[in-house]
Design a protein that fits this description.
Blueprint (H helix, E strand, L loop, with lengths): L1 H5 L7 E2 L14 E9 L2 E7 L7 E3 L8 H16 L14 E8 L6 E7 L4 H14 L3 E8 L11 E7 L2 E6 L2 E6 L8 H15 L6 E5 L5 H7 L4 E6 L2 H13 L5 E5 L2 H10 L6 E4 L8 H10 L3 E6 L2 H13 L2 E9 L9 E8 L1
Parallel strand pairs: 1-16, 6-7, 11-12, 11-14, 12-13, 14-15
Antiparallel strand pairs: 2-3, 2-5, 3-4, 5-6, 7-8, 9-10, 15-17, 16-17
Helix pairs in contact: 2-3, 7-8
Length: about 350
């Protein structure tokens, strides 16, 4: 409430009680770990709080499943046994940079994404085979290559070492393909409740055209498609758009169209082309809306906006802009998507005055 009133100048609105998560531990379906060297040994883990130069060797993470912890231990053991070189940020030398684990909570699929500085498939193929031998439910082991200085766990090229290039997950009665670099809500069980809340907030009658901004792998789009005439999803990550298109096809949904590009660039073309939408759902990154994207949203003039946010400060900033453009904030529902952390998700519904 403080953010919305102080930063967004929001007046009278309903702030609902926090929707608690069904699981306090072991809930994350994705974890990203950094590979580093400490005292001559390879460590794989999380950064110490407020220290990007210190990596804590994480033997067991309570936020992920035991199967994911087993995979983490196996990667560490393989890296040490095979003396795989750790990437050094200063010199640009070495191989291993990050390890990202993903899991289908409803399907049991697991993925290991090894992010490296060079496409050394030959050296990492035996590692992938050892991972599958240790955890047979591992459906995908992929190699992402990031040869740039930027310390990000996303590569410019990808090689499948074992299995598929994706895992599957189920939400409600739909099945989703999730690739290594696609966005998918990290708490599957709570995501089902979050998306149910979004669906209720949309108040669909079956005749609407809906825009899903920052649509990721299409989870919200496909869930809403069953309740409206057509959904357009806009997403900047091409891999996620490919996943969304495959997900629509796999679920027999033909009233979704997914477009690749930044919302600030794609949304104005909708306005210029005369496309109208009664409802807009937006789930932007922590930075919130780009000013040009928000300007285009106002020009589109949907009747209802359902804003899903993981950052109360940028939510308040964007809500304040929308209030000044003639919208009214009706209610905000906080959702605990990230137990054991200070972070909170929130769903806000706005209506054109």
């Amino acid at each position: 409430r403080d953010c919305l009133e102080r930063l967004g100048a929001a007046g009278d609105f309903e702030l609902r009680s926090i929707l608690p998560a069904p699981e306090a531990y072991g809930y994350r379906n994705k974890m990203e770990f950094t590979v580093a060297e400490a005292a001559g040994a390879t460590v794989i883990g999380l950064h110490e709080a407020d220290r990007y130069d210190v990596v804590l060797d994480t033997e067991r993470c309570l936020l992920q499943s035991e199967a994911m912890n087993t995979l983490l231990a196996e990667v560490r053991g393989q890296a040490r046994d095979r003396a795989l070189a750790v990437y050094d940020q200063d010199s640009g030398q070495g191989l291993l940079r990050f390890v990202t684990l993903r899991e289908g909570r409803r399907t049991g699929d697991r993925m290991v994404n090894i992010v490296v500085a060079a496409p050394d498939v030959e050296r990492l193929q035996p590692v992938a085979e050892a991972l599958v031998a240790r955890v047979p439910s591992t459906a995908s082991v992929v190699l992402n290559v990031n040869a740039k200085k930027a310390a990000v766990a996303v590569g410019t090229e990808e090689h499948v070492l074992v299995g598929r290039d994706h895992i599957t997950e189920r939400l409600d009665d739909l099945t989703f393909q999730v690739s290594a670099n696609s966005f998918f809500q990290t708490n599957t069980l709570q995501a089902e409740r979050l998306f149910g809340l979004v669906e209720q907030a949309c108040e669909l009658t079956g005749e609407e055209t809906v825009l899903d901004l920052y649509s990721g792998t299409g989870a919200i789009s496909l869930l809403l498609a069953r309740r409206c005439r057509h959904v357009y999803g806009i997403e900047v990550a091409a891999a996620a758009v490919d996943d969304a298109t495959r997900n629509a096809r796999a679920n027999g949904i033909d009233n979704c169209t997914f477009l690749a590009g930044e919302v600030r660039h794609v949304l104005p073309t909708f306005v210029r082309d005369g496309v109208t939408a009664a409802v807009v759902v937006a789930d932007p990154p922590r930075a919130g809306f780009h000013p040009k994207a928000l300007q285009a949203l106002v020009a589109l003039a949907p009747v209802r906006i359902v804003y899903v946010s993981c950052n109360p400060a940028t939510l308040a900033r964007d809500v304040g802009d929308l209030l000044r453009q003639g919208y009214r904030l009706e209610w905000v529902q906080p959702v605990d998507m990230f137990p054991q952390t200070p972070h909170i998700e929130a769903v806000a519904r706005l209506r054109r005055a």
